[in-house]
Amino acid sequence: MTDREIRNQTKPFLGWQDFARLFDCGRSKALLLMHEVGVVYIGHAVFVPASKLDDYLAEHGSIDITWPLSEKRRKEARHERR
After folding, report:
1. N or C of the chain: less Cβ packing under 10 Å?
2. Which pLDDT score is estimated for 82?
3. Which residues contact 69 (CB under 8 A, 6 or more apart)?
4. What does each C-alpha distance from 27 to 30, 34, 35, 58, 66 come to in angstroms?
5. What is residue 45's three-state secondary structure?
6. The pTM is what?
C-alpha cells in the first residue's frame, strides 16, 4: 500500500500536526503549506482534505511557499521605495 492510500484510508482530513509529521516541519511552516494547498475550516480548526493534498502534489510535484516579510523588513521595503 502506498503512502497516499494509507493517508486516504486513515484520515479524510489532515490537520497541521499531520502536515508537520509528513513534511518534517513545525507548526508555522505546516500552516503555510496547508494554506498553499487549500484549507477547510471546521469551527476554528484548519484542515486540508487528504484527497486535495494528493491532487495538489500530483499536479505540482511539490509545495512552494514563501515566508511573509517581518515587520522590520516591511518597513525597510517601504523606505527603499521612497
Report:
1. C
2. 67
3. 77
4. 5, 10, 12, 24, 15
5. strand
6. 0.69
Write phi, then psi, for 47 (nearest 5 degrees): -140, 160
Identity of residue 49: P
Report the residue count for the chain. 82
How high is the mean pLDDT of the chain? 85
Domain that holds residue 23: 3-81
Q: Which three cell numbers stand for residue 51?
A: 484527497
CA 24 – CA 39 distance, rounded (Å):
19
DSSP element (H, E) containing 29: helix 27-37
Of the candidates 69, 71, 51, the residue with the CA atom closest to the CA atom of residue 59: 51
* Total of domains in the chain: 1
Outline where DSSP puts E strands in 1-82: 13-14, 40-42, 45-49
Question: Are residues 40 and 47 in contact, defined by beta-carbon separation less than 8 angstroms?
Answer: yes
| Residue 48 CB neighbour total at 10 angstroms | 22
Find the angle CA(48)-CA(22)-CA(42) to the nearest 5 degrees.
20
